[in-house]
Amino acid sequence: MLFDLMKYIREGNFAMLFIQVASLLFVVFCTMPVHEFAHAWTAVKLGDDTPRLSGRLTLRPMAHIDPIGALMILLVGFGYAKPVQVNIHNLKNGRKSFALVAAAGPISNLIMALIFLFLSAIVSVLAVQVGLPSAVYTVLYYFLYFAASVNISLAVFNLIPIPPLDGSRILTLLLPSKYYYTLMKYERYIMLGMFLLIWMGVLNKPLAFLSSLIYNGFNWIVTLPFRLIGWL
To answer: 188's torsion region: left (phi>0), alpha (psi -120 to 50) or beta?
Structure first.
């Protein structure tokens, strides 16, 4: 992501630079709060009132933004927000509910990505069918493209099964409790190791590959109706 921004600066393509930065800020301040709200709402519905009591059952950006996680989004295209605290003992079905709470965040990102891709398809239809001005088309299409791409990247990144990411919470369904809680003890060190792998570029290619597969699949689905009726 940082390399893309630097490329736009080198090329003097300040329009694309502005669009991509705007879409990244939109993700940080608008869609990441939805991700965390999805965790909080699901937890409350499944019996744990901890997120509401801790002020996380809200869409207010500052209640959810983690500075380092937000910076990662701006630099590499994926990151994280402040984890929503959930008491597994308050949940109606224990570990199953805990896994559902964890999955709610990435699912919300995928739903938002589908919405953004659908809107980008409508923009393309308007460009083809009614001659949308090229400048308007460029701004709208690429803003929605970047927003969808980053949401998919966030979903893929957060499903990595290492603490404190959502994927590690889903592991509660697969690992015996004693192994899961042993893993959680080393959460800080595992996270530091993951940052190192990201910095070295080891994780970037597989994450980008998976994100690209999902993006292409979603894009094929949302554009199919328009292609069938000959609008695209």
So the answer is: alpha
CA distance 75 to 94: 37
**CA pair distance 102, 39, nearest whole angstrom:** 6
Q: How far apart are CA 158 and CA 31, in angstroms?
A: 14
Neighbours of 50 (CB within 10 A): 18
pLDDT confidence of residue 74: 78
Q: Which residues are catalytic?
A: 36
Side chain identity, residue 128: V
For the segment 163-210, what is each residue's pLDDT rounded down to a tens digit? 778 988 888 777 776 666 676 676 667 777 777 777 777 777 888 899
Q: Is 153 exposed, middle or buried (0-12, 13-18, 19+ CB in 10 A)?
A: buried
Residues 126 and 130: their CA atoms lie apart, in Å, by 5
Q: Name the DSSP class of 48.
A: -
| pLDDT tens digits, one per residue of 121-130 | 999 999 999 8
Distance from C-alpha of 210 to C-alpha of 200, rounded to nearest angstrom: 19
pTM: 0.90
Please state, in angstroms and rounded to a whole number, the distance separating the CA atoms of residues 200 and 186: 21
Q: How does 66-79 read in b/e, with b if 16+ C-beta sit within 10 Å?
A: eeebbebbbbbbbb
